[in-house]
């Protein structure tokens, strides 16, 4: 890695629940829902009022709610539409002009562990143990790089996988792909409250089968070159 891409910092970021303040954001019943406060922090740091924010995998629409609250323009796409404000679209082909977006946030699948939709084209139908998974997500990364303005920033959330006594470093494998298109600003560890794995039975299983409980996701903050 070149010296100019050295990380500014590595952070442990403990985020709260889906809502903050007195307004709901997205739906906490949606599989793989994104915590609103993560998006709120990113938009406060890397955007200003009137900027255009895009979420290519919008899910329940949390990014839309937060961006509107902060007076940002916003477009949310998803292959599985859950509400009228979300436009149906595959993230691998984003219908926007080159260099037209100020910030992109994406909370992508990290394997086929969650049923995001019944659409067979959904990237979340592909196991992270297959190279095809990273190839397809890289197509999304390439599209994000195309629509993002020079020097602007993305926030990409993803996690690792540990199933059937096998660990897959999904985050780092995807980060290697993202480095083709963006410079790294920071890698943040998002610890998660109220994890279903944080119970006595899972603690016992972890000791019995010799694995670590996975209670975090990566947040890759990256910038498009000038």
In CATH, what is the class? Alpha Beta
Residues in β-strands, percent: 25-35%
User: Mind telling me the C-alpha Rg?
Assistant: 17 Å
Q: Write down the oligomeric state.
A: single chain
Number of domains: 1
Keywords for this entry:
226 residues; alpha/beta; Rossmann fold; two-stranded antiparallel ribbon; 10 strands; globular
Structural description of this entry:
It is globular and about 55 Å long. It has 226 residues and is of the alpha/beta class. The strands form two sheets. It has an eight-stranded mixed β-sheet with strand order 1-9-10-6-5-2-3-4, sandwiched between helices. Strands 7-8 form a two-stranded antiparallel sheet. The chain has a single domain (3-223), classed as Rossmann fold (3-Layer(aba) Sandwich), CATH 3.40.50.150. 24% of the residues lie in helices and 27% in strands.
What is the strand and helix layout of this fold?
Layout: E1 10-15, H1 36-46, E2 52-55, H2 62-69, E3 73-78, E4 87-88, E5 101-107, H3 131-147, E6 148-158, E7 161-163, E8 166-168, H4 170-178, E9 183-192, H5 200-209, E10 216-223
Short note summarizing the structure:
By secondary structure, the protein is an alpha/beta fold. It has helices at 36-46, 62-69, 131-147, 170-178, 200-209; strands at 10-15, 52-55, 73-78, 87-88, 101-107, 148-158, 161-163, 166-168, 183-192, 216-223.
